Amino acid sequence: MKAPIQIRREDVAADIRALAELMKVSITEAVSAAVTEKLEEERQKAAAEKAERWKRVDELIAELQKLPRVGPMLTDDDLYDEYGLPK
Question: Hey, where are the domains in the chain?
Answer without folding.
Answer: 10-68
